[in-house]
Amino acid sequence: MKYLLTIYGNEAIWDSFSRRDIAALIKDTDAHNAKLMASGEMLSAYGVAEQSRATQVTVAEGETVVTDGPYIEAKEYIGSFYVVDVDSEERAIEIAAEMPSAKYRQIEVRPILHEAPGNCETP
Questions:
Q1: Cut 0.90: pTM above it
Q2: Which long-range contacts (CB under 8 A, 24 or more apart) does 76-79 make?
Q3: Measured between alpha carbons, how far apart are the two ends of the chain, in Å?
Q4: pLDDT tens figures, 35-62
Q5: CA torsion 41→47→52→53, rounded to 10°?
Q6: Half-sphere exposure (Cβ direction) of 72: Cα atoms closer than 13 Å
C-alpha cells in the first residue's frame, strides 16, 4: 500500500539551526533515504521549491483560472514529501518516526486514495 509522507517546514526552526546542524540533518536524511531505497519501500522523495510561492488552478464556466496563493498566515509550509510503498499503515508511521526531520517538525502520513482499503484499484 502506498502512503504520502509530508514534511512541513517552519522558518523559525530552520533559522535556529547552525550550519553544522543543517549539514548533520542532511547527512542523516540522506542515509535514511538510502536505507529506504535499498529496501524498496521509498518510491520517491522531493523537496518543494520556493516554499513561499504557490499557484492555484480552477476551472470556472469552462475557463481556466490561475491565481497566486494561497495567501494564508501560516508558520508552516510543505517542505518536502515522500511516497512509500509498505505493507501497513504501522510501517508508514514507523518510517515517518525514523525520519531525522521528525525530531523537529510534524510528518503527516496519508494513504494514497487508490491504494487505501475500500477504494477501487487503478486499472
A1: no
A2: 76/8, 76/9, 76/10, 76/105, 76/106, 77/8, 77/9, 77/10, 77/48, 77/51, 77/52, 78/6, 78/7, 78/8, 78/9, 78/48, 78/51, 79/7, 79/8, 79/9, 79/47, 79/48, 79/51, 79/105
A3: 15
A4: 999 999 999 999 887 655 678 888 989 9
A5: -90
A6: 7
